[in-house]
Amino acid sequence: MTRQLFVTFFRIGAFTLGGGYAMIPIIEAEVVDRHKWISREEFLDLIAIAQSCPGVFAINISVFIGYKLRKTSGAVWSALGTALPSFLIILLIAMFFHRFMDVPWIAAMFRGIRPAVVALIAVPTFNLARSAKINFANCWIPVCSALLIWLLGVNPIFIILAAGIGGYLYGTLLESEVKE
What we know:
83% helix
C-alpha cells in the first residue's frame, strides 16, 4: 500500500501544472473515485484542513491521506511522492533555464500555460463550492471574504479565524434550536 501511495502521488505531482490547487481534481479522481481510499465528504474536510495548515497544500493533503491509510509510513511516502517530481523538475529547469528562456517558442509556451493554470485552479474552486453547498443564500460569505482580502488587504488568517468562529456559533445556534 505504501508503494501504491508513493506511485499515485508521484504521478499526480509529475503531471500537474499550476500547484496544489490545480492538483485537487486529479487527487480527488485518484483518491476518491479510482482507489476509493476516502469518501468525497472526507476529501472535502481534508481540503479545508490542508488549506488552513501552514505549508504546501499538495504536501499537506497527501500527508493527511497517507497518514489515514498507513500512519507515519504512509504520510512519509505520499509526501515524498508528491514533492519529488517538483523537486526534480525544478532542478532540471534551474540547470538549463537560462539557456532556453530567450528562445521565442519556449517563452511563448510559458505564456500559453498561464491561462491554462488559471482554468486548472478555477474548476476545483467551483467544484468545492458545489460540494460545500454554497448557493445564492450563502455565497456572500466567500465573495465578501475575497473582497476583504483583495480590496482592503485583510490578512487571510483573520478571515479564517472569523469563519471558524462564525461556523462554531452557527452550529451552536442550530444545535440549541434542535434541542428546543
